[in-house]
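Why does residue order matter? Because the sequence determines the fold. Keep that principle in mind as you read this record.
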Amino acid sequence: MAGSTAPTAERPTRSQQPRRPAFVLPGQGILLANIGLVLVSLVFLDVNLFSRVNLATLTPVIGVMALVALGQAFVIGTGGIDLSIPSTITLVGVIILKSAAGSNDALVKALVMCLVATIVIGLVNGFLVEVLRLNALVVTLATGQLIAGATRMYRGQTLAITRVPDKLSEIARSSIGAISIILVIAVLVAVVLALWLKFHTSGRRLSASSVGRAAAEHSGLAATRQRITAWVTATVLVGIGGVFLAGQITTPDLTLGSPYLLTSVVAVVLGGASIAGGRVRVAATILGATFIVVLEQIFRVRGFSSGVSLVVEGLVLSVGLAAVATTKNVRWLTVRRTPDEPPGGPSTPGVTSNKKSQE
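Structure:
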């Protein structure tokens, strides 16, 4: 028809155009807290955390704490909590002592026994909590007592040999420069876990089952089985930490796991995890563990008593829980720029606030 013009598609306005997702660092809050803690120690407290002596002291402790905290993170991700961690660590130390009896040749057998023991503990806890739907706090408190009693019975009154095999001690005390091999292994484990949870089908299913059990069940993801897997994974991680801790100390006793009852929870909460459950934040949990260990080291160097450290840990846990609760619907402010926006930014503020807490 003469004079008619072909309809032209309307160009979407800037507000309608898809926006690039902003890059968000994992655990931004606890990352900044660690940076602030290091700066305070250097500037105001005259504590050089990067000296060779301090690194040699800090890095193995951070490595063990990271492994134990990752184990706790998997349980907290299901909405539970594991109070049997100290007893599990102590059991692992006693198995290394008694089964290996100081012999390098028997070390592999002892490690296999530790692996079997941790898997059984994870299965029992997972069955009681996820299948029978019992309260996780009560269940793990009870199983922790049972494990502690069984450990004492297995150990007996006295041990002929009270040192771990030299090979284990040699590995646990080795380092790359001033960085403990324990921390290096913990970081590698964390990377593997992060990749597994993000990219592998089984890891994504476990994450989905932890975040929302009902939704996962309706989607046919076998949520109960996945959540039991989370418990087993958690206990195995704790067992690995216990093995390295026993090797680092060389003479583990019945108090080996005692310091990890509260600190493992604090590290996970500082990483931004919700006690009600959610995704496992691997990087943030590592940073939370680092914060706790560095804080304790500063107190130790400055001559404060262990009682002060316990009080501060309790306060940090309270503040961390409050922060997670109050920032649940707030995300770090991020500026998002559309592909055709000028480098100087949009004409109107592009700062948005997301509803979900930081990953």
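The CA atoms of residues 56 and 348 lie 51 Å apart.
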